[in-house]
Amino acid sequence: MLVESPPEQRAETAPAPPNRRAIRVLGLLVSVVVLVLVALASIAIGAKELSLEQVWHGLFEDSGTYGDVVVADRLSRTVLGVLVGAALGLAGSVLQALTRNPLADPGLLGLNAGASAAVVTAITFLGVTSLSGYVWFAFFGAAAVGALVWFLGGSRGATPVRLVLAGTAISAALYGYLQAVMILDDAALGRMRFWTVGSLASGTDSTVTQVLPFLLAGSLLALALARPLNAMAMGDDTATALGARLNRTRALAMLAATVLCGAATAACGPIVFVGLMVPHAVRSFTGPDLRWILPYAAVLSPVLLLGADVLGRIVARPAELQVGIVTAILGGPVFIFLVRRRRTAQL
Q1: What is the distance between the alpha carbons of residues 133 and 114, in angstroms, rounded to a whole number?
Q2: pLDDT number for residue 33
Q3: What are the Cα distances from residue 254, in Å, to 221, 274, 275, 290?
Q4: Collapsed DSSP state (helix, strand, coil) of residue 136
Q5: What number is the average pLDDT over the span 109-134?
Q6: Which of 32, 107, 291, 320 is most buried (CB neighbours < 10 A)?
Q7: Residue 27 class from Cβ within 10 Å (0-12 exposed, 13-18 middle, 19+ buried)?
Q8: What is the per-residue pLDDT across 38-60, written as a single tens digit (0 to 9) for each?
Q9: Other C-beta atoms lying within 10 Å of the C-beta of residue 147
């Protein structure tokens, strides 16, 4: 017996008309251009501003001058921002599709808090000091919290409201634990005070090299899940009729989100709202098809993250405001707007 989907659900997976597809492709190319421009601004703007000529010289004609050294330092920070931004955007998109929850976000579901708590524990009590050590603890913390949120949210009977409430409660408890550890341990406070608010200042060649394999693996897995997650959006029965393997898809989606959040948090600390804001903005243009949402989120999330990082450098000169603080300030009003507009509590 064939299962017929409602017209609006069939439209979600139907091929886009040629003209709409061309518009989406053009929009993606424009987004890439915007990302390049923001990346150049990230290299040029800081405590000491550089001209485009200095940026070009530092990128392609390195001769060891002061400007070239500044470009080299900021280039690593910018590359890290691109990688982490793409990771958070992809993780947020996957979690929203997996939970069918428009408010799903690595921060709101507690993954960032879990990774942060694990890293702080490793640094304070186990003496871990290297990023390669942070990454594994961050993975464990994110995975443990993800499983706990899913269990407290009702497992297979989880609803969007339950998942958000569970994630919020766990995040609050874990951030309280973080604050207690840092207050009681002055050395931990000195090491962690910038990391815990989210910052790209740790961006070095070594940082990029160590997290790159994890971020690439998580990104490729997330992109590969676009079709099965599209099927799951129609409901479990319809997805099963279409051949989707629900349990495997859910497990792989959680694995992708955990790898992406764990590596990003280990490198930069917890950065919230990037995975929430960008997928919503993208969805209004691309529609619900994850085959388009994921690439757009991977390009535009770094635009938001690097833009927030540049803004933090401008408003607090000659010091800087950490990017995690800027995204939280920007994301709070957006979150409230989404709650009011979508009446999320009734979903």
Answers
A1: 16
A2: 97
A3: 10, 18, 15, 16
A4: helix
A5: 84
A6: 107
A7: middle
A8: 999 999 887 777 777 777 777 77
A9: 14
